[in-house]
């Protein structure tokens, strides 16, 4: 397909296919002076969703509304939110809510942006969840380096306590008691995995747990209690669903996984940043219509659709819809490694000047450093990949190294590890070998690109 920018902006398809301008849902506070503070949040209709839930609905009807909206988790797994809430509620209390605000994936920064701009949007979504599931204690686990975001949340929590939105008998509802606290992590990538995150919250080394039991079950969650673990963006959608209705939310974007999405795009584009658009917006539109096209008018060589954790897409596949359903089914499924994947929507774009061998060598080094070491395939395999790719990238590769790489990736990937880090570590390597094998062969035959030392992963915030 052509990779030239469109001649004119076409209207975004919103709702039931009607060409209407896109109105921000999650990012209404951006650009507003004082937008992160409670008075401005109330002016924008804040806490109406919570008020409706408490005063006009019962917990089961709230869960049904979330289920009917088809809200899927925005953190990467794409699990139905209503199903998770309902499954947790069916298990005996006490129960907990944990918000995964770790956002440690290179190239993702939408959660950070949302928290900084509109922390009360997150708190309201959390409180609705607590009301629906019967939760009295909630935790926000935020990445330790995001000090500003933690401070913004702490201030918002104090405002909400003072106004009666957090605490005892919220909004006059007898027995509706919720406490919320913020915990800063220590910068481990593996804390993006929900069970490792809970281990860290409990004061232990961040390592994934064996499942079952699952977090929603007794024995599987935080402190052994049934626990809802949700992403920041997921919970920020909740108040809007209650105010505007499940049908409104389900009408936006991709039918199988609808709603607004915070896409983060970086790399060799002219306007990197966070773009709120309907789920299912095409990669072509994201690059050329919103991110300003490619630097120096390069062609797109490859794209990481869900940051480093996902397989690469070739630059010829720009018409693909960027949503969980599309990127987890054929033709975006490559045995034995599974789907390309969408992750949290952190898109990294590589121009034609990029040396893919250098990209995956650096990615392999990242995953080797971040492996927690609990399971053998990941602990040993990620370092094997790093060693082999480092040798190749430095011009000392041998033709047999490609076979070694393929063997190592097969022995790590395919759900052979306790958590998804093992699969994540091989995705960029395996897909690069599939799509750009001649470049690896050139390195191994002593014909590496002269620009190799100066190229690599484009700079990505987050």
Core attributes:
462 residues; alpha/beta; Rossmann fold; Ubiquitin-like (UB roll); de novo design (two linked rop proteins); 5-stranded mixed beta sheet; 4-stranded parallel beta sheet; 16 helices; 13 strands; disordered N terminus; disordered C terminus
Notes on the structure:
The chain has 3 domains: 28-250, NADH-ubiquinone oxidoreductase 51kDa subunit (Rossmann fold, 3-Layer(aba) Sandwich); 260-351, Ubiquitin-like (UB roll), CATH 3.10.20.600; 356-454, de novo design (two linked rop proteins) (Up-down Bundle). 38% of the residues lie in helices and 13% in strands. The chain has helices at 38-43, 48-56, 59-68, 81-89, 110-117, 119-133, 147-163, 194-201, 232-244, 246-250, 283-290, 356-370, 376-393, 401-412, 421-435, 437-444, and strands spanning 13-14, 18-19, 96-101, 137-142, 179-184, 227-231, 260-267, 273-278, 300-308, 313-314, 333-334, 338-339, 346-351. A 5-stranded mixed beta sheet has the order 8-7-13-9-10, with helices on both faces. Strands 5-4-3-6 form a 4-stranded parallel beta sheet, with helices on both faces. Residues 1-21 and 450-462 have low confidence and may be disordered.
- Outline type: globular
CATH homologous superfamily caption of the largest domain:
NADH-ubiquinone oxidoreductase 51kDa subunit
**CATH fold-type name of the largest domain:** Rossmann fold
Based on secondary structure, the structural category is: alpha/beta
Low-confidence stretches: 1-21, 450-462
Q: Count of DSSP E strands?
A: 13
The CATH architecture of the largest domain comes to: 3-Layer(aba) Sandwich
Report the C-alpha radius of gyration, rounded: 22 Å
């Amino acid at each position: 397909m052509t990779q030239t920018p469109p001649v004119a902006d076409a209207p975004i398809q919103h709702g039931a296919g009607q060409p209407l301008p896109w109105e921000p849902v999650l990012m209404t506070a951006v650009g507003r002076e004082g937008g992160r503070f409670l008075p401005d949040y109330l002016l924008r209709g804040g806490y109406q969703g919570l008020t409706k839930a408490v005063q006009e609905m019962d917990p089961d009807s709230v869960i049904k509304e979330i289920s009917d909206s088809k809200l899927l988790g925005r953190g990467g797994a794409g699990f139905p939110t209503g199903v998770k809430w309902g499954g947790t509620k069916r298990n005996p209390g006490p129960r907990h809510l944990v918000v995964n605000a770790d956002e440690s994936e290179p190239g993702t920064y939408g959660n950070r942006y949302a928290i900084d701009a509109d922390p009360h949007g997150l708190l309201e979504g959390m409180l609705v969840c607590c009301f629906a599931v019967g939760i009295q204690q909630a935790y926000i686990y935020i990445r330790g380096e995001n000090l500003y975001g933690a401070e913004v949340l702490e201030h918002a929590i104090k405002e909400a306590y003072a106004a009666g939105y957090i605490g005892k008998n919220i909004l006059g509802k007898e027995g509706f008691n919720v406490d919320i606290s913020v915990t800063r992590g220590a910068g481990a990538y593996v804390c993006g995995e929900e069970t490792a995150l809970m281990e860290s919250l409990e004061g232990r080394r961040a390592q994934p747990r064996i499942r079952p039991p699952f977090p929603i079950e007794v024995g599987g969650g935080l402190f052994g209690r049934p626990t809802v673990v949700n992403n920041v963006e997921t919970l920020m959608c909740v108040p809007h669903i209650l105010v505007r209705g499940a049908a409104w939310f389900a009408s936006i974007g991709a039918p199988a996984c609808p709603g607004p999405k915070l896409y983060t795009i970086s790399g060799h584009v002219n306007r990197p940043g966070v773009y709120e658009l309907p789920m299912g917006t095409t990669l072509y539109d994201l690059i050329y219509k919103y991110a300003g096209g490619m630097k120096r008018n390069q062609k797109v060589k490859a794209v990481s659709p869900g940051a480093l954790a996902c397989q690469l897409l070739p630059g010829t596949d720009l018409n693909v819809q960027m949503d969980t359903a599309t990127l987890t089914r054929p033709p975006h499924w490559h045995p034995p490694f599974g789907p390309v994947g969408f992750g949290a929507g952190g898109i990294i774009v590589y121009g034609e000047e990029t040396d893919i061998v250098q990209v995956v060598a650096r990615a392999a080094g990242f995953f080797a450093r971040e492996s927690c070491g609990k399971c053998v395939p990941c602990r040993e395999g990620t370092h094997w990949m790093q060693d082999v790719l480092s040798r190749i990238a430095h011009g000392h590769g041998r033709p047999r190294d490609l076979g070694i790489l393929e063997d190592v990736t097969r022995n790590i990937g395919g759900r052979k590890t306790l958590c998804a880090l093992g699969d994540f570590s091989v995705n960029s390597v395996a897909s690069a070998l599939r799509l750009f094998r001649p470049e690896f062969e050139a390195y191994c035959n002593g014909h590496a690109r002269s620009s190799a030392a100066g190229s690599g992963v484009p700079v990505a915030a987050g």
